[in-house]
Design goal:
single chain; alpha+beta; eight-stranded mixed beta sheet; five-stranded antiparallel beta sheet; 18 helices; 28 strands
């Protein structure tokens, strides 16, 4: 998908098209007032006050038609620079523009652009004439509070996009349709994976039974891998005292991303945003010898982080999440080897899920930012160099990003390119020399002296929430058989003659441990098959008279027309092999 903001010509065209749209709206709604109309990655939008009128779907067509009429007229676009006093006079009847003008810093060059009968306050730049704006499309509309404040008036926001030629526009619209089909929020609703409700709150998803199956299988998958690598799993509370986070440093560095504290008796608690402080205390519960290390503490932990309501999105960006978290306590001489094992686990998981389009980012501190980052140059240099050494030894391609480290140490982020949309960070591994000091952690070295361990913070899936959103969009909801909520859908061709055999197969597959459904409704076979496809069931069994007579199974794979027939035993063996392989 073209990156409009990164293309100077496209950015200018979309900026100009926002004004073209505003002019068309003004023709159709003479009392319309306009707030702001910026270029965004997906094109442009304009926030509009239409008084008591409300935009409807059919109105977008009318506005587009008027835009085309104005474009054909071919008026030139003129820029004019004016003083603040002149701007206040020119827009004296527009409270939104007056507010903008009054908030300009002293000395700001104020400019406006005029095309025909329409003048708008704008920095620009713009194309020379409206005739250049031919290939555009209004995409959608929504409500938007003035200045993003729910206490203010609700404006109407219209989104659109503009390209240089029809081919690029059509390609973009095609990609948008693909994105809609892959949107995990739509898939999650269609397949009953998760829901949300205002009574629970924004960013607080409720996992439905189908979603719980998906998540539990993801948990089982990564738990087994971690067990084989010597991880010890724990359960810790999803709250902690404010003093816990003051000790860790999160209270000073992360407070704005945490939920407000709450007083209970004499203690002040906060919903935990991360699990490392709890795991530090778990490690500190016992004395450790250098022979005990590395100690790998893992947890599937529910965390809470404040996200602005506008940033909340399905399972991808939430306020309540479950992390696939672990903290590895190591000696300094074990950092390289343990970090390699984490990277190897990430690559192993990505291979299982068929993820190939990803890159590694080494996130470093900004040495000039003494407020965000703990001020210890030696500690930072040592930590950053350790990670570089391992990445170079592994032969991994990576790039460095200054100012992206956690406050306590550098980290490796794995940025994965999904089927649609921008890159997302799934896996992370962070190196931490600081928190073990803050919690006064130690181990006894071979000479009997106390030493401070180093901690690797790592999350392979990131959160189960975001990973599930990612997988739903990658597969369009057609999950692999081991993850699918319903693995086999059994359909008798005719209930009167074939239901008894279908019931027998249903019970046999259920007894073998498969997640199976029997569709015994009195509906036509074609209707049941279409519904099975819509529900993304990996296997649909179609059992008619031939299958009854031969005691066989005939099946279709999801969204395929070919039917395959085999014995019951062969089908069960095939399913077991696929589920065991988890591919």
């Amino acid at each position: 998908m073209k990156k409009i903001l990164e293309d100077e010509k496209l950015s200018m065209m979309n900026h100009s098209c926002a004004h073209l749209m505003a002019q068309a709206v003004k023709h159709l709604y003479p009392n319309a007032l306009f707030w702001v109309g910026p270029v965004i990655e997906e094109g442009f939008y304009y926030d509009i006050d239409l008084g008591d009128e409300a935009i409807k779907e059919e109105d977008l067509i009318k506005i587009e038609k008027e835009m085309k009429k104005i474009s054909k007229d071919g008026k030139r676009i003129y820029r004019e620079e004016i003083s603040k006093e002149e701007a206040l006079e020119k827009f004296k009847n527009d409270p939104y523009k007056i507010d903008l003008i009054n908030n300009f810093a002293e000395g700001t060059i104020i400019s406006c652009y005029t095309q025909g009968d329409f003048t708008d306050l704008c920095r620009g730049p713009h194309v020379d004439t409206v005739k250049e704006l031919k290939f555009f499309k209004l995409l959608k509309f929504s409500g938007a509070y003035w200045k993003g404040d729910a206490k203010n008036r609700m404006l109407q926001r219209i989104y659109g996009v503009c390209f240089e030629n029809e081919e690029d526009l059509n390609e973009y619209l095609k990609e948008l349709e693909e994105a809609k089909e892959r949107d995990h929020r739509k898939i999650g609703k269609d397949l009953n994976i998760f829901m949300s409700h205002n009574l629970v709150g924004k960013g607080m998803p409720l996992w439905l039974p189908n979603g719980a199956i998906v998540r539990k299988n993801l948990e089982n998958y990564i738990y087994e891998k971690e067990q084989k690598l010597g991880y010890q799993h724990v359960y810790t509370p999803c709250v902690g005292t404010v003093d816990l986070y003051k000790t860790s440093g999160h209270w000073d560095h992360y407070k704005e991303n945490m939920f407000p504290s709450m007083k209970v008796d004499e203690e002040e608690f906060v919903l935990r945003p991360m699990n490392c402080p709890h795991h530090m205390l778990v490690y500190g519960n016992e004395l450790h010898s250098y022979r005990d290390l590395p100690i790998r503490i893992g947890e599937f932990a529910t965390d809470f982080r404040y996200e602005a309501s506008g940033a909340v999105k399905g399972l991808e960006r939430v306020r309540c999440m479950c992390q696939n978290d672990a903290h590895l306590f190591v000696r300094p001489d074990q950092i390289g080897e343990e970090f390699k094992k984490v990277v190897a686990l990430i690559l192993d998981v990505y291979n299982d899920f068929g993820l190939k389009n990803y890159k590694f980012r080494l996130s470093l501190r900004d040495p000039q930012d003494k407020e965000k980052y703990f001020d210890d140059d030696q500690m930072w240099n040592e930590a950053e160099n350790k990670l570089r050494e391992v990445l170079n030894e592994f032969g991994l391609d990576y790039y460095e990003a200054i100012g992206e480290a956690a406050f306590y140490g550098p980290k490796l982020d794995v940025e994965v390119k999904p089927a649609v949309g921008p890159e997302v960070t799934l896996s992370t591994c962070q190196l931490d020399f600081l928190l073990p000091r803050r919690f006064e952690l130690s181990y006894i070295d071979k000479d009997g002296n106390k030493q401070v361990p180093v901690v690797l913070h790592r999350a392979i899936f990131g959160t189960f929430d975001r990973f599930t959103a990612f997988i739903l969009e990658e597969t369009k909801g057609a999950l692999p058989v081991w993850l699918s909520p319903i693995q086999v859908n059994v359909i008798p061709v005719n209930n009167e003659y074939h239901l008894e055999y279908a019931q027998e197969i249903y019970e046999k597959l259920g007894a073998a441990g498969f997640r199976v459904k029997l569709d015994d409704r009195n509906e036509k076979l074609g209707y049941k098959l279409r519904e099975s496809i819509i529900n993304k069931n990996p296997y649909t069994l179609i059992l008619g008279q031939n299958e009854v007579d031969d005691k066989t199974i005939s099946y279709r794979l999801n969204n395929e027309q070919d039917t395959h027939t085999m014995s019951q035993e062969e089908f069960i063996d095939m399913l077991e092999d696929q589920i065991k392989a988890r591919k």
